[in-house]
Amino acid sequence: MGLVTPDYGLVFWMILAFSILLFILKKFAWKPILQGLRSREESIERSLKQAELARKEMERLQEEGRALAEKARQEREKELQETRQLREKLIVEAKETARIEYQKMIDKARVQIRQEKEAAKKELYNTVAQLAIDVSEQVIRKELDKKEQQVDLINKLIEEMSGN
Length: 164
Known about the structure:
The chain is an all-alpha fold.
């Protein structure tokens, strides 16, 4: 039972041994251990500061990236809008040019039709005049005495001309 209930002498020697060990550790090991802990603490603190700086730099770079992406998107939208406007302008100009060309062609065709119509009228008038002259000439050559014969002859010539 000696192990369960310690003796006063054993307790004294244990306290003495522990005190000597504590003195030796304090004298020789405690300062290097504390210094090692402090240097480790400082190293961790520096690493945390560097990590925080790196995080802030990363956030700044991400923000710059977002800003650049937004600027690029806006520029792309602006260029697309300008392209659309240019396309619309070109379409309007092409339609206007085509309309003008179409109107010129229509006007030219109308003028040409009018000229051909006038030429056909002149030709018709000339033909009718020539026929009238021919009829008159034939009537005069016959020197007919009777008016009925002249009328019959004129009607006959008119029928002949209508048949041609």
